[in-house]
Amino acid sequence: MSALGSAVVDVAIAVVVLVAVVASALIPRGGGRWRRRLRRLGDVVVTASAAVVLVGAAAAVVPGDPVARALGEDAPESARAAMAATMGLHHAVVLPAVLVPAGAGGRVVSGLVLGLIDDDGGLRSYRGEPVWGIIGPRLSSSMRLGSGALVLGVLGGMLLGAAAGWLDGRRGGEAVAVVVTAAAALPRLVLGPALVAVVAVSWRLLPAGGDDDVAGLVLPTLCLALPFAGVVARHVRVAVIDVVNEPFVRAAVARGASPWRVALRHVLPHALLPVVHLTGVQAGAVLSGAVVVERVFSWPGLGTLLVERLQQGDLPVVVAMVAVSAVLVVAMNLLADTVAVVVDPRLRRARTP
Asked: Which of 283-322 are b and which e, b meaning 16 or more Cβ less than 10 Å from the residue's Cβ?
């Protein structure tokens, strides 16, 4: 893409962010449905942009020069300038020293957007490879692993938490509560090698890693999902204990409703809301845990790529990966807030004046 095209993209990004800031700051809270949606969209754009800019700014002040690491300290200035342009680190405007981190952060935003628009533009690795060409396949693998872990963690945690709350004070309730606490406290750094040693090596039931087939996805998904399921189960257990003592639940039991009907119709719907919010908050923890899990199970995702590029000192790729992860966390929180409004109509009524 030409310099003029890059400048147009930079201006367009600045306009979008400016409009989002204005929408977030000036649109009053409450109001109609479309006003609320526009304000929420502005909040998301501002938050995601700020996260990416902060990542780029932090990379600009850390020790080390990615251009010098790629070419060597004795490379001529012309070669350094060409490499900086190739990596997407070149700045057309000379900024004061105090504004260099902010300029670098803005360049990360425009570089990622340019890479989506044009394969020849945007950020590049120190080898000259397009960043999105490197991240794209790995992001797909990580999304498969992370989405499976989130679904398994939510379903397993809700079932386990509901059982622990329903059996609270009864026979077997303490045992289920111990299982819930143990699952929440399991460190993935220990759980992963244990699953490999027992399930893959000793029992030979599943492969120890790789993404050749669905079987290779089972162990890393379990390793990523079990601690998350324990955290979900603890919140569901507390919610169920609070709900089972409510008058409407006691009335349903007194009318002769079966335990399954009481649990599914009266108890679990009230436990859904904390689970939805928790899923959005825990998305970042699942992403960070994926770094360890992917290394243990040789899963070709973002976590494995992050470690590889850190060892190689490929700063543009590392910065782009962290920025993409930040945007994913913001998107997960937006999705969680949207689902929460759908699950609990009281939130929808509370936002309407």
From this structure: bbebbebbbbbbbbbebbbbbbbbeebeeeebbbbbbbbb
Check: CB of residue 216 under 8 Å from CB of residue 210: yes
Give the type of residue at 92.
A
How far apart (Å, rounded) are the C-alpha atoms in residues 270 and 162?
11
pTM of the model: 0.80
Tell me how far the alpha carbon of residue 196 is from its chain's centroid: 25
pLDDT above 80 for 204: yes
**C-alpha distances out from residue 190 to 69, 89, 194, 227, Å:** 35, 39, 6, 11
Say how far apart CA 160 and CA 148 lie, in whole Å: 18
Residues 126/64, Cβ–Cβ less than 8 Å = no
Indicate the burial class of 75 (C-beta count within 10 angstroms; 0-12, 13-18, 19 or more).
middle
**Residue-wise pLDDT tens digits, 30-44:** 556 667 777 777 777
Within the chain, where are the H helices? Answer: 3-26, 33-61, 66-71, 77-86, 100-117, 131-166, 173-185, 188-195, 215-244, 247-254, 259-262, 268-296, 302-312, 315-343, 345-350
Residue type, position 186, single letter: L
Domains of the chain: 3-117 (no CATH), 132-312 (1.10.3720.10)
The Cα 100–Cα 115 span in angstroms is 22
Q: Measured between alpha carbons, how far is residue 41 from residues 17, 47, 91, 145 in Å?
A: 11, 10, 30, 28
Please give the average per-residue pLDDT across 13-30, as a whole number.
65
